[in-house]
Design a protein that fits this description.
By secondary structure, the chain is of the alpha/beta class. Helices cover 40% and strands 23% of the residues. It has a 6-stranded parallel sheet with strand order 3-2-1-4-5-6, sandwiched between helices. The protein has a 4-stranded mixed sheet with strand order 7-10-8-9, with helices on both faces. The protein is globular and about 55 Å long.
């Protein structure tokens, strides 16, 4: 896919940082859009599109999610211009504040209306932030309704994993960058067995929820690769019974067919026996001695909303 067909979008301060990092890791394979109420985040930015929700005031949309939503709606004509060429939109955001919580669902709605496949990677607040968590839960429910895939990330787990890797969870983004960049590279780079947007659409639009995993490690230890994927900072994911999987295995020139088969078995053995599995493979010189796996899994049981849970008990 051409770079203008793949759009990495950061919404809110944290989301914009993560989007910048992901865009840099993709080596010109995708376009970039930054959306925030604080226009100072756009200073010295020359590689992407910028959309300000601040309308000239210094406070932007801090803690004012409804205001951010209103301004995102007012900016729909500008967003439409950026979305005109896009086929896939990857939204990176952190919920619980103003711009991310208010604008993410509205932008996802606009992207889907423009015909884009929309995948949101949304971080939930730290457990010690109950007020932010309440705001985030409302925003997450709306984002789920408007995105084709909504991946829920725990900031507590993300920070813990980042400490293990020696990176700052905010500036380094770590796992978030790996996941988003892995998806872009899966679609944009030529491989031995290519995956395309139609493959991705056929998986994520199956009935039920969908999520994504990424893992990197020893190609001779597929179980450890799978365990690495399962230790991701995702919140509340259960793979049992999933009936769709898009799987890409990437490795160095020394990667063998036997290693690829063993890795594919490790990642699909727990799926439903009638699951649809679409497989891709690519060789990258920089991965000699290492395998990287990107998996999109669908047909998951969706978590109940508060209202659905209440209805089920009545």
């Amino acid at each position: 896919m051409d770079s203008e067909e793949l759009l990495i979008t950061g919404i809110g301060g944290v989301g914009c940082i993560w989007a910048r990092n992901t865009h840099s890791a993709c080596e010109g394979l995708a376009d970039l859009l930054l959306i925030d109420g604080d226009s100072s985040l756009f200073e010295n930015e020359a590689e992407g599109h910028m959309l300000s929700l601040g309308e000239g005031d210094s406070s932007g949309c801090a803690a004012l999610a409804p205001l951010a939503e209103q301004r995102m709606l007012a900016n729909a004509p500008l967003a439409e211009e950026v979305l005109k060429s896009a086929e896939l939109v990857v939204i990176l955001t952190a919920l619980g504040g103003g711009s991310g919580s208010g604008a993410s669902a509205e932008f996802a709605r606009q992207a889907r209306r423009a015909g884009c496949l929309t995948i949101a990677i949304s971080a939930m607040p730290f457990e010690c932030q109950p007020l932010r968590t309440r705001i985030a839960e409302i925003a997450l429910e709306r984002l789920r309704r408007n995105a084709d895939v909504c991946i829920q990330v725990s900031l507590d787990r993300l920070a813990w994993r980042s400490r293990e890797r020696g990176v700052d969870w905010l500036e380094g983004s770590g796992w978030v960058e790996d996941l988003a960049a892995g998806l872009i590279q899966m679609l944009a780079k030529v491989g031995l067995i290519n995956l395309d947007l139609m493959d991705l659409r056929s998986i994520v639009r199956r009935e039920g929820g969908a999520t994504m995993f990424v893992a990197e490690g020893d190609p001779d230890d597929p179980e450890a690769l799978f365990a690495e994927a399962m230790s991701s900072p995702l919140a509340g994911v259960e793979l049992a019974g999933a009936d769709g999987c898009l799987l890409q295995v990437e490795g160095g020139p020394d990667l063998t067919l036997g290693q690829v088969d063993a890795i594919a078995d490790a990642f699909t053995i727990g799926l439903h026996h009638d699951a649809q599995v679409i497989f891709g493979a690519r060789v990258s010189a920089e991965l000699e001695g290492t395998a990287r796996v990107v998996a999109v899994v669908s047909g998951l049981s969706m978590p109940m909303s508060d209202q659905e849970l209440l209805d089920s008990l009545m």
